[in-house]
């Protein structure tokens, strides 16, 4: 199954809401997303991504056969980290374990490194999210260490892992 990443369209809101209205997905993301996630929430997110500075926010839909199954984005950091960006992603549960997310990560890293001055992309999955850690490893990211007691998710203090890939490594 091959995926493609592409710019968002407002018409993607329904598919986005369908993918993100899953507590198993939200348990692996940062807080602040509404649950259940509605089509209007999706439209608001897509509008924000479409109006964002394209040199700061690289946000794409993950698609299979034209259908949106997830979201992936790279977000430039500021100040002394201005050439560093954070990666975030998720796909609908139906598509887990098929190599799709790894392929999407490879695609977005190539796109960002080719079209910007970003030199480092990093990700901070929750330490318990073994599948996400494996996605990053398969996409060529290097494990840099564990960020101990780095977050509180669902009322529990948890570790996160730090992964990165450099422009020179792609």
UniProtKB/TrEMBL annotation:
SUPFAM superfamilies: Acyl-CoA N-acyltransferases (Nat). Transmembrane segments: none annotated. CDD domains: NAT_SF (cd04301). InterPro entries: Acyl_CoA_acyltransferase, GNAT_dom. It comes from the Bacteria. PROSITE patterns: GNAT. Residues 11-163 form the N-acetyltransferase domain. This is GNAT family N-acetyltransferase. It comes from Diplocloster modestus.
């Amino acid at each position: 199954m091959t995926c493609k990443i592409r710019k968002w369209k407002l018409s993607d809101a329904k598919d986005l809401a369908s993918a993100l209205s899953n507590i198993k997905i939200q348990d692996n993301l940062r807080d602040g997303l509404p649950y259940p996630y509605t089509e209007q929430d999706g439209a608001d997110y897509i509008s924000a991504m479409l109006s964002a500075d394209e040199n700061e926010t690289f946000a794409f839909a993950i698609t299979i056969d034209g259908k949106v199954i997830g979201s992936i984005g790279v977000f430039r950091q500021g100040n002394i980290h201005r050439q560093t960006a954070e990666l975030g992603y998720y796909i609908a549960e139906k598509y887990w374990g098929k190599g799709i997310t790894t392929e999407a990560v490879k695609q977005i890293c190539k796109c960002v490194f080719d079209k910007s001055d970003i030199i480092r992309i990093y990700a901070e999955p929750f330490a318990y999210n073994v599948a996400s850690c494996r996605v990053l490893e398969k996409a060529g990211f290097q494990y840099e260490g564990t960020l101990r007691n780095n977050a509180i998710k669902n009322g529990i203090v948890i570790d996160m892992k730090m992964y990165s890939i450099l422009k020179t490594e792609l």
